[in-house]
Structure to design on (993 residues):
């Protein structure tokens, strides 16, 4: 398959999906994203290389953008990231796709416990 | 933090090295924080191992993904490089032209040289094929007597031995007769060649003796060109020399003849030799005449060395059996591979190869110089980029891409140029009846080699500025740009050194090229002996005019007289042949002379001419007298010899009064009454001259041959009048050939001239290339001093003085290069000594011309930009 920008793939890379998900509620820096991903996914430790490479690519693709650290106490050297409307749209599309998959699995009575 | 923690930390930093520097710098700190948080949670050894396993896998996969994105950056750099090249069109076009001309000329010359001079042997398994030579009377390896061929063919050393003899015959077609080239060949000919006929069959062993009928095999190129590839050719009958000959096959697809790529039209069987006359039939049993080329295929287990031993044994046996003929007459075996098609051209080949190599070196030096000079000019740009944080790697890549795209584009343009040049070449340089089966196609290996060399040069010298940039102090470079008064001494020295190298290389090239050009001129001007400018000839075919044989000499003489009376004709003569026309020899005994091989008989060229011949041809009688009409059959038999014959048979004394006779039955003994200056006997040019004797048609009636006439007008205009005169004397007689002597000897020169013309063009190209290279380097470095000149002008220097200073300095540097180049040439050029046609390799005119060209170019290259800079407003120059 030809390489494409994050958010443009037929199937979104899990790292991208998780990062978008982590940014839906608030702006976060890299470490914060990693923590959030770990919690929301039930313990997946996203690799540091994967994390920062994905962040760079997602900024370039316009799914997220980097913003100034919120609050006076935050470390100014830390880059925070915010999801963009395009990012939300991509997240919704991917969620819809996953939902369809889950529906399909349920219809075939795939045991989930 | 614990000592253990510190160790882990350095471990992770090691891991970080996997990432590209940019990525590491941007995210390394945060990545390490993430790592530390995770490492703190991993308390068991398996958990730590699992963590590290994931980290390493993550690093590798990320690195891989980033590499893919890196190609993106390459594309960006390529775009930048092309933009950069387009921004300096002068430099780019100049560099491309240099590369294209250099590479194009190189490929074109190699292709021609390859096609004509180092063409592979057209036989299957050519390593097993040898040529066998029999000594001529002078002891030099030459062609073979047919009986000796039979002796050789019996040797177990060979799986097949063939004999062939080239010649020309007249082919009668519906409404015209044309001369075609033929080869008499034995049945074994194709076994030696190792190639099957395309159609029909080849001769069988019974065709190797007279009586088996007249059969021919048409060569594949002639089948296509002369018969349009007629599929029903086999079984057809053609008329050659007035005899019916049956075509029994078409030759091998990839063989043009024994002299491939020169096309033989027909192979004729040995049983067909009678169509050229009884002499060819009796020749088959004569050991005196050597008319056949012998080639053989080594049997399994035999080598050229063992074959040579076997040939020595045969030669020794023949010397005992026929001492009068074969004593001291050796047989020589040579590998077919080692036999060049045109041995005379080998010198030219060596010279051409030297030029090609030199051309390639200079092209590559030109490119290197241009890139280096350009690199120096961009020291400022590099410094700015470095100061802005670009790594040496990135800058190196930029320069690399730039010089690579330059070399690749130049290389491609060069190949295109070579294509055009080869397509424009006349592909039929040989006179009729010869044609060539050469196709000039570019050899892929050469093209690749030339382009790879240029790319390597581009890489090496394109990187130089980047490498220097890594070593240079950035702030110094920033200051040391155009605006500063003087450039650093190191830079200056390097630039001057470049000019010296460029000039020195150019001197050698121009000198070699000049010598080549003069060799070409010498080839053109070589004294033909005869004066061809005002002589025309016509060859009436009296032989087939149904005249009784006894009347032929009278008719020929009538024609000569008629032609002599034509307006504008000053002399007219009859001759059995034209000069420089291959022919058989006469077995002759010269009294008081003992040849090196065999008995007293020697094979010598002779010619039957009418008394007017020498005046007509412009040949001087250097001693004694010429023939007169009073030399008649009843008077003493007389003979004229040429100077080469005197040198050989009567060295150091007068030939007058010398006596000789042909070994033919009832041949009279003739007395030498005069010596004629040398004229080409069988080939043109002919070095050294061959011995030759002339007999007069007033004593030995001349029945067939040529009528030659000298005019004080245009000989080309005379040809048709001569033809008309011939037909007036005898209606219905055909004219077999006609033309001017200049075109006849010119035809003999056609191939050497063709090669010489190409090499001459190459030498002109070399001069052009050298001039362009010097101009580029000098002009560029002078232009770079515009800033310095601006300051000097601001300080009060006059424009005139400035220009004089710059030009003077430049000429000084160029002078150093000249001295170095001349010294180099003095060492190298004498190696070419043997190749030159009587030219002193270091002859002053060539040298002077080379030096003059270079100084002029260097002067222009310094003067033009210096004047431009001096005229410019100093203020604007300084503001840059």
């Amino acid at each position: 398959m030809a390489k494409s920008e994050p958010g443009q793939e037929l199937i979104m890379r899990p790292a991208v999906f998780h990062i978008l998900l982590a940014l839906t509620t608030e702006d976060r820096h890299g470490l914060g994203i990693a923590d959030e991903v770990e919690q929301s996914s039930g313990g997946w430790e996203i690799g540091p290389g994967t994390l920062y490479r994905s962040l760079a690519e997602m900024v370039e693709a316009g799914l997220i953008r980097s913003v100034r650290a919120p609050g006076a106490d935050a470390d100014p050297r830390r880059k925070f990231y915010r999801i963009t409307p395009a990012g939300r749209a991509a997240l919704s599309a991917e969620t819809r796709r996953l939902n369809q998959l889950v529906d399909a699995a349920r219809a075939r009575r795939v045991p989930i416990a | 933090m614990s000592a253990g923690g510190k160790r882990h930390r350095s471990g992770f930093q090691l891991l970080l090295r996997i990432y590209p520097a940019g990525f590491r710098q941007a995210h390394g700190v945060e990545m390490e924080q993430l790592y530390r948080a995770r490492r703190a949670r991993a308390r068991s050894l398996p958990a730590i191992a699992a963590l590290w396993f994931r980290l390493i896998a993550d690093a590798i996969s990320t690195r891989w993904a980033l590499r893919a994105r890196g190609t993106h950056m390459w594309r960006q750099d390529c775009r930048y490089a092309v933009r950069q090249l387009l921004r300096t069109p002068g430099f780019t076009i100049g560099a491309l032209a240099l590369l294209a001309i250099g590479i194009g000329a190189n490929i074109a010359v190699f292709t021609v040289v390859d096609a004509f001079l180092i063409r592979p042997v057209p036989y299957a398994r050519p390593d097993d094929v040898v040529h066998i030579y029999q000594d001529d009377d002078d002891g030099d390896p030459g062609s073979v007597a047919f009986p000796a061929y039979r002796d050789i063919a019996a040797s177990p050393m060979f799986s097949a031995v063939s004999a062939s003899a080239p010649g020309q015959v007249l082919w009668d077609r519906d409404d015209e007769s044309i001369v075609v080239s033929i080869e008499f060949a034995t049945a074994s000919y194709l076994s030696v060649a190792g190639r099957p006929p395309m159609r029909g069959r080849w001769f069988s062993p019974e065709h190797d003796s007279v009586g088996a009928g007249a059969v021919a095999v048409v060569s594949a190129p002639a089948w296509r060109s002369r018969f349009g590839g007629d599929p029903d050719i086999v079984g057809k009958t053609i008329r050659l020399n007035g005899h019916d000959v049956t075509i029994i096959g078409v030759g091998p697809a990839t063989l043009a003849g024994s002299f491939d790529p020169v096309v033989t039209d027909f192979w004729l069987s040995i049983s067909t030799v009678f169509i050229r006359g009884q002499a060819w039939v009796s020749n088959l049993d004569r050991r005196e005449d050597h008319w056949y080329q012998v080639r053989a295929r080594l049997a399994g287990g035999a080598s050229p060395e063992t074959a040579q031993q076997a040939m020595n044994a045969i030669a020794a046996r023949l010397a005992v059996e026929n001492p009068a003929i074969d004593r001291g007459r050796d047989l020589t075996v040579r590998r077919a591979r080692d036999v060049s098609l045109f041995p005379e051209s080998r010198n030219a080949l060596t010279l051409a190869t030297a030029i090609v190599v030199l051309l390639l070196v200079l092209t590559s030096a030109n490119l290197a110089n241009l890139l280096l000079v350009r690199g120096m000019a961009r020291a400022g740009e590099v410094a700015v980029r470095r100061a802005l944080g670009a790594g040496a790697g990135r800058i190196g890549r930029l320069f690399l891409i730039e010089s690579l795209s330059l070399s690749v584009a130049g290389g491609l343009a060069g190949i295109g140029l070579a294509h055009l040049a080869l397509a424009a070449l006349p592909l039929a340089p040989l006179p009729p009846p010869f044609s060539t089966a050469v196709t000039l196609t570019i050899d892929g290996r050469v093209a690749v080699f030339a382009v790879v060399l240029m790319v390597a040069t581009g890489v090496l010298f394109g990187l130089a500025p980047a490498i220097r940039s890594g070593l240079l102090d950035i702030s110094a470079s920033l200051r040391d740009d155009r605006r500063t008064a003087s450039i650093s001494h190191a830079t200056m020295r390097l630039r001057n050194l470049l000019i010296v190298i460029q000039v020195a290389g150019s001197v050698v090239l121009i000198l070699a090229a000049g010598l080549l050009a003069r060799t070409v001129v010498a080839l053109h001007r070589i004294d033909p002996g005869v004066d061809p400018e005002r002589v025309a000839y016509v060859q009436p075919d009296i032989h087939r005019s149904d005249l009784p044989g006894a009347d032929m000499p009278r008719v020929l003489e009538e024609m000569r007289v008629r032609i002599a009376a034509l307006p504008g004709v000053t002399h007219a003569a009859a001759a059995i042949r034209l000069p420089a026309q291959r022919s058989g020899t006469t077995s002759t005994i010269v009294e008081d002379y003992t040849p090196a091989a065999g008995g007293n008989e020697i094979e010598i060229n002779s010619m039957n001419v009418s008394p007017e011949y020498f005046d007509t041809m412009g040949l001087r009688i250097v001693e004694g007298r010429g023939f007169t009409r009073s030399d008649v059959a009843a008077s003493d038999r007389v003979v004229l010899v040429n100077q080469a014959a005197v040198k050989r048979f009567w060295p150091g004394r007068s030939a007058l009064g010398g006596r000789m006779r042909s070994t033919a039955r009832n041949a009279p003994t003739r007395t030498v009454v005069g010596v004629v200056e040398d004229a080409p006997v069988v080939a043109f040019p002919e070095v050294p001259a061959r011995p030759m004797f002339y007999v007069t048609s007033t004593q030995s009636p001349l029945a067939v041959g040529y009528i030659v006439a000298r005019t004080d007008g245009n000989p080309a205009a005379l040809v048709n009048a001569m033809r008309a005169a011939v037909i007036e004397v005898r209606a219905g007689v055909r004219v077999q050939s006609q033309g001017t002597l200049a075109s006849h000897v010119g035809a003999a020169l056609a191939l050497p001239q063709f090669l010489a013309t190409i090499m001459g063009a190459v030498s002109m190209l070399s001069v052009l290339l050298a001039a362009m290279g010097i101009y580029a380097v000098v002009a560029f470095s002078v232009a770079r001093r515009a800033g310095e000149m601006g300051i000097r002008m601001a300080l009060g220097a006059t424009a005139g003085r400035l220009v004089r200073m710059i030009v003077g300095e430049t000429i000084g540097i160029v002078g150093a290069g000249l001295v170095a180049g001349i010294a180099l040439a003095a060492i190298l050029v004498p190696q070419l000594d043997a190749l030159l046609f009587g030219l002193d390799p270091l002859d002053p005119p060539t040298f002077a011309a080379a030096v003059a060209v270079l100084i002029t170019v260097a002067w222009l290259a310094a003067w033009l930009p210096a004047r431009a800079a001096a005229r410019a407003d100093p203020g604007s120059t300084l503001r840059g």
About this structure: Residues 45-87 of chain B form the longest helix (43 residues). The interface with chain A takes residues 19, 23, 26-27, 30-31, 33-35, 37-38, 51, 54-55, 57-59, 61-63, 65-66, 68-69 of chain B (CB under 8 Å). The CA atoms of residues 569 and 711 of chain B lie 4 Å apart. The first strand of chain B starts at residue 129 and ends at 135.
